[in-house]
Please model this.
Amino acid sequence: MDLDVFVTAHRAEWDRLEQLLGRGRRLTGAEADELVALYQRTATHLSLIQSTTPDPMLTGRLTQLVARARATVTGARRSSWRDAARFLTSGFPAAVYRSRRWWIPTAVLSVAVGVLIGWWIAAHPEVQASIAAPEDLRAMTRPGGEYETYYSSHPAASFAAQVWTNNAQAAAMCLVLGAFLGLPVLWILFLNMANLGVGFGLMASAGRLDVFLGLVLPHGLLELTAVFVAAGTGLRLGWTVIDPGPRTRRAALAEQGRAALGMAIGLALVLFVSGLIEGFVTPSGLPTWARITIGVAAEAAFLLYVYVLGGRAARAGETGDVEASDRSAQLPTAA
Model:
């Protein structure tokens, strides 16, 4: 394509679009229709130039024109409580539901790794000796030891806030680092499961596995589920880099990235509930069965939320992405 000829043929249209944009809202009906038509044609021109003879200055001007025109055509929209309600009742649960084929296998394999590590430590005294000195192990696992006092070592409110912050950071890292082919996500998962497996193995070797499970299960069911959902979403994002499907890699990553961002907000709320349970229920004087029942109820409520509301929304076409009007315009691709 001869760029000079192309610019000469279409410069008048671009100048006219810029003139209409400069008038703001003071447009007649015919002028508004003209602006829409010029916006569509300029977007096509930009696509052609980018794919054939990209010129930095011309591309910059047309990109700015297209962005301004799109903002004028679609209009600005403020977020409202309706958006928040839509996100909580359909967007977030649908995104979790649609990614279930990633986070459920992630959960099963991760728990298996944690149990295997715990069994290995419990069955091999030499491994326990490599973790800490015998007197230190007794200090951790004895009645009233470090494993039991950990959950009541700080005021409940500050402890819950600290736990929520740490877990939200771990979930966010899984979501963000998933774009690096998912490899950092696997490492974060392994560290979490290794930490859980060490406690499992040491308390089992001391004959106090029931106490350990009574302390971990109330908050751990919901907490680990949130981490597994984040990890599964991160792995899905990493796979999108490898196999974007029928879309362009850029478009696929943009869609999955927006869904992951929404997932991070939703999981922060889930982990907030888990943090409250860990801060107020786990160290409480409630019987073990009552504390575990609360944890199971919270986990069941989350799964019902995902499979009932999320499943219904996903079947209705909800993807967890932002609304179409809030997405970046997809320029047509030149043949």
Residues 324-335 have pLDDT under 50 and may be disordered. Residues 209-242 form the longest helix (34 residues). DSSP finds 13 helices and no strands in the chain.
